[in-house]
């Protein structure tokens, strides 16, 4: 076993990040199993956030260093999920960073990962430490964190929490809360709830019809690739899923037996064993989604419906991986990035189809939407078009509060305009 640093660096350089690292994966899996149930879930989100910032070298380095330190403190020191933290939790983290353990301070800057030539893979550098101290005349000085560096730390954390809010992983930004009550007085503005500013994140009825119509067309033209896409988008929309809830990650591989039939009622549901905050939930499955499942499984040459012990991966790779920890594996479950690529391809094709039919403005709006808009759209349509009770949608969406669910009520400007278009100013005037 190679020598490891006292804190495992979690994120390699951007050109290596997506390859995966066996030692990091092992560490995250151990934390998930023994200390923090949603550690792997949040680690995948952290990777996605970093990948969004990979084209700015300075930002990437700053962000990954802060995330590594913060997640180490959460997972290893406090043994708490980052989404469980409030303002006092951030204060404990600040106190930790102001006086870190001496063993975690280095006095020269070294790479977080190095190439192990014997093993042929990159490994955590045993010389790396999360804190960097200074020397005076060659003598190590006590570690000090300047106000400027502290502000940077909290700004990075605030941006990360804003990303998690946008992905509906959490509903609060404790870094902003701490800044507002600290001696710094003010901090970054947190991301707000789903509402006016989130309008563009929901597909209109017309736009969504192009998404589903395009998925059907692609599945007919290239079934070997897009039968999978058609079922993926149907599942994401029908169960309001976050992409992380159907993607493989360290410690979790989604399988067919997550579709379950109640023996007494005959009703089918989709079980999510680990989601936001380490919680689990069961989502009701509609008749159309059940039919979509049967179509997908029939294409895969499986029985139409899964048995309770069916461990077939939910979304499998059609070509063997060329790199990373699953190199050469064909039927490995797809991760967040691979699933997102499939959905991005679908949404781009749907926007192109809408534009070709003369709906240029709709096409432009569709190109601005994200994969997470599929979840927003499913919730919005069910509440405003299908008339499902808020409490039912809240349970299926996994919202902590009915207030979160109620924010989807009539949030669309188009729908509000249509409902107001025929209002009379003088109800007695002919």
Automatic annotation (TrEMBL):
Keywords: Cell cycle, Cell division, Chromosome partition, Cytoplasm, DNA integration, DNA recombination, DNA-binding. The keyword DNA-binding applies. Its main location: cytoplasm. Residues 198-422 form the Tyr recombinase domain. Pfam families: Phage_integrase. Residues 40-165 form the Core-binding (CB) domain. Signal peptide: none annotated. This is Tyrosine-type recombinase/integrase. The lineage of its organism: Bacteria, Pseudomonadati, Pseudomonadota, Gammaproteobacteria, Aeromonadales.
């Amino acid at each position: 076993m190679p020598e490891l640093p006292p804190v495992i660096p979690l994120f390699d350089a951007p050109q290596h990040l997506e390859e995966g690292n066996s030692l990091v994966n092992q560490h995250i899996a151990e934390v998930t199993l023994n200390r923090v149930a949603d550690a792997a879930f949040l680690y995948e989100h952290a990777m996605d956030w970093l990948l969004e910032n990979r084209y700015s070298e300075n930002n990437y380095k700053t962000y990954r260093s802060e995330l590594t330190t913060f997640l180490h403190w959460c997972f290893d020191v406090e043994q708490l999920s980052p989404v469980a933290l409030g303002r006092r939790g951030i204060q404990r983290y600040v106190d930790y960073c102001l006086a870190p353990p001496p063993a975690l301070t280095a006095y020269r800057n070294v790479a977080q990962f190095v190439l192990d030539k014997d093993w042929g893979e990159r490994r955590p550098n045993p010389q790396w430490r999360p804190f960097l101290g200074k020397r005076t005349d060659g003598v190590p000085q006590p570690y000090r964190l300047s106000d400027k560096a502290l502000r940077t730390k909290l700004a990075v954390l605030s941006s990360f929490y804003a990303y998690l809010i946008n992905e509906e992983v959490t509903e609060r930004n404790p870094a902003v809360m701490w800044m507002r009550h600290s001696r710094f007085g003010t901090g970054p503005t947190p991301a707000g709830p789903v509402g006016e500013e989130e309008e563009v994140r929901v597909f209109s009825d017309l736009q969504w019809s192009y998404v589903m119509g395009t998925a059907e067309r692609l599945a007919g033209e290239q079934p070997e690739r897009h039968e999978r896409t058609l079922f993926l988008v149907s599942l994401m929309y029908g169960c309001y899923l976050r992409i992380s809830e159907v993607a493989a990650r360290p410690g979790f591989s989604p399988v067919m037996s997550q579709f379950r039939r109640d023996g007494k009622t005959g009703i089918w549901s989709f079980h999510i064993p680990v989601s936001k905050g380490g919680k689990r939930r069961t989502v009701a499955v509609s008749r159309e989604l059940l039919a979509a499942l049967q179509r997908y499984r029939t294409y895969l040459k499986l029985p139409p419906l899964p048995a309770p012990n069916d461990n077939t991966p939910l979304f499998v790779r059609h070509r063997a991986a060329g790199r990373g920890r699953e190199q050469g594996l064909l039927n490995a479950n797809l991760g967040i990035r691979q699933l997102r690529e499939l959905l991005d391809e679908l949404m781009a094709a749907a926007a192109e189809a809408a534009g070709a039919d003369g709906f240029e403005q709709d096409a432009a709006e569709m190109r601005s939407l994200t994969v997470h808009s599929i979840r927003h759209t499913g919730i919005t349509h069910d509440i405003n078009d299908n008339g499902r009770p808020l409490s039912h949608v809240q349970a299926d969406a996994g919202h902590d509060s009915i207030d979160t669910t109620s924010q989807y009520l009539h949030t669309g400007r188009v729908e509000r305009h249509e409902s107001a278009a025929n209002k009379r100013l003088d109800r007695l005037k002919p």
